[in-house]
Specification:
By secondary structure, the chain is an alpha/beta fold. The radius of gyration is 25 Å and the shape is globular. The protein is 32% helix and 21% strand.
């Protein structure tokens, strides 16, 4: 009898708790309705190459709520102090807990987001300043008062809000910068494969006029200038004659949208091109939700190049498809940021070939990404981004140059492209000036000198001369050998992992001395411009006029320019500069 009575008591207690829980949810929902909603981001309004279709399923979405940081000004000051060789705090990087403690969101803001999600995602997780939750698209529509559509690009399918944007109750809206995936569409892959002749970059411009250039799609250089870019030829060009020695050194490449790593392809590349030299340091560690599969040209280019340039340095391949192992759909770039922000000892250098027009992110989202990059800088991690493959990137229908991001962020190092021997600027190399961020202090003198030169500068209406200028540096971006895709791969996607390998070797010098890694590079780079090979020939593509004639974009000039930055790395000179750092 006592046992039965106990069970009845427990049943009644459980029922009472459930009723209280639902009453709380109902009252909370009523309060949310009463307080009104605030639009967080408007829909981009164009789907670019993505094809919009009616939604045929109710997928699970892995949402990231970017809860607002505190002390953002202090974050930026700290990131500069530990990154500027002229600062007393140079190299005094913060640990992950220290960085998170510095910018930790208010408890009330995290609580508002978790309470908001309680009905649909009671298991939401909170990592640092990001709340992650998995919900059905139909539930996300109720949360955001919005409609998710299905979009296709080739075999890839995503679900995004393409009309009207999304909103949150006022108390939640004031707690977050933005939520993903919502209105932002992932960019299409950007690497140029051989055979796509109209996209292969120009190698020289002597003797060709613009009309010929447009008709041919490619400016032919004298055959003597064409060099297949392999580990041996890249090391020779950039004066690399060493391999890494430090056991604590590491470097990584990132891959998005089902660009997979193939172990057999990497081993074949090493067998083919690394005879007599050391490439990498054993097989790379695989991190992320999409690593192995059929070899992708972008992903194999990245891992083969970085290991080809830097022998003796442990490499990692971080791959993200936009889907978790449990099939939840996410924003792959945010997934990478979330994982990096929750990894205690990540690689010291990341090379990423992900990029798109700056305007494809809302100002609120772009500013938050900038804060995330500054957090990474404060930890002493180097972020290198390919600058883009659109030349000066003329906006459709306007004689306006559109900056690309993340390369345009002042807290990353943007890598442009060159071609041939001797090196000249390559037409596809994207550069210019940010419309979101002002010019950072580390580059003011270099850009002022650029504007003072008598050589051609695009008209002022075409760009924001007060903005963050990019790229910062450059490297070879044509004729790369990539197994199993041949030796005609091109794009600044080639340049970024090339520079990453050299930075990893420079980090190795510091680590051998018991010093900190280089971390955020740009203060060091602009203070040591003479350690780079200045590229003064060539130009990027500009805008097309009404007749289809392509105008010039940015010219390569002495010092910094908007197509090659400060130039290409000379390891021997950079080594000397690094050894003199505190």
């Amino acid at each position: 009898g006592l046992g039965g009575g106990g069970r009845q008591g427990n049943d009644w207690l459980l029922l009472h708790r459930m009723m209280r829980f639902f009453l709380v949810l109902l009252s909370f929902a009523g309060a949310l309705e009463e307080e009104g909603r605030v639009v967080i981001e408007e829909a981009v309004g164009r789907t670019r190459r993505w094809v919009q279709k009616a939604r045929t399923s109710d997928p699970v979405l892995e949402l990231y709520f970017m809860v607002k940081h505190t002390n953002v000004d202090v974050l930026y000051e700290t990131a500069k102090a530990v990154s500027d060789p002229r600062s007393p705090a140079y190299g005094s990087h913060l640990s992950l807990p220290e960085v998170e403690g510095l910018v930790a969101p208010r408890d009330e803001d995290v609580g508002a987001v978790l309470q908001f999600l309680e009905a649909f995602a009671p298991r939401a997780s909170h990592g640092g300043s990001i709340v992650s939750a998995k919900v059905r698209a139909s539930d996300a529509e109720r949360l955001f008062d919005a409609t998710y559509h299905e979009l296709h690009l080739g075999d890839h399918v995503v679900h995004r809000i393409v009309e009207g944007g999304y909103s949150l109750p006022a108390s939640v809206a004031q707690a977050v910068d933005f939520v993903a995936p919502t209105v932002h569409l992932p960019p299409a892959k950007r690497v140029v494969k051989g055979g796509e002749k109209e996209k292969i970059p120009p190698l020289a411009s002597e003797g060709k006029d613009d009309a010929d250039e447009e008709e041919e799609g490619e400016e032919e250089a004298p055959e003597a200038l064409r060099v297949k870019n392999t580990p041996t030829s890249l090391r020779e060009l950039y004066n690399v004659s060493v391999a890494g020695l430090s056991a604590s050194n590491s470097m990584a490449v990132t891959a998005f949208l089902e660009q997979f790593y193939d172990e057999s392809a990497l081993e074949e590349y090493w067998d083919t091109y690394c005879d007599g030299i050391v490439c990498g340091d054993g097989l790379p560690k695989l991190v992320g939700d999409a690593t192995t599969g059929n070899a992708g040209v972008e992903s194999m280019l990245d891992i083969e190049t970085v290991t080809g340039v830097a022998g003796g340095v442990e490499a990692e391949f971080w791959g993200f498809s936009g889907r978790s192992p449990d099939n939840a759909e996410n924003e792959p770039f945010m997934k990478w940021l979330y994982l990096l922000g929750n990894t205690t000892n990540p690689p010291l250098v990341f090379s990423t070939s992900y990029g798109e027009d700056e305007s494809s992110w809302s100002p609120a989202a772009a500013n938050r990404l900038n804060e995330e990059f500054a957090k990474v800088a404060t930890r002493g991690i180097t972020l290198l981004y390919a600058s883009g493959d659109e030349g000066a990137n003329c906006e459709e229908g306007h004689d306006v140059f559109a900056p690309e991001t993340p390369a345009s962020s002042p807290w990353v190092t943007a890598v442009g492209g060159t071609t041939g021997r001797p090196e000249t600027a390559v037409g596809l190399s994207t550069g210019g000036f940010s419309n979101y961020w002002g010019m950072p202090d580390y580059q003011v003198d270099a850009i002022r000198a650029y504007f003072a030169q008598p050589s051609y500068v695009p008209p002022l209406f075409a760009f924001n001369p007060a903005g963050r200028a990019f790229p910062d540096v450059s490297a070879q971006a044509t004729d790369f050998c990539v197994t199993p895709f041949g030796c005609t791969v091109a794009g600044t996607s080639c340049a970024s992992p090339t520079v990453a390998g050299i930075v990893a070797l420079l980090n190795d010098l510091r680590l051998q001395q018991g010093k900190s890694p280089l971390g955020f590079l740009n203060y060091f780079v602009y203070q040591n411009a003479a350690s780079f090979n200045d590229i003064t020939q060539g130009k990027s593509y500009g805008c097309q006029d009404s007749t289809g004639k392509t105008a010039d974009g940015w010219p390569a000039t002495k010092g910094w320019d908007g197509v090659t930055g400060l130039g290409t790395p000379n390891y021997a000179l950079l080594k000397d500069a690094v050894l003199q750092l505190p």
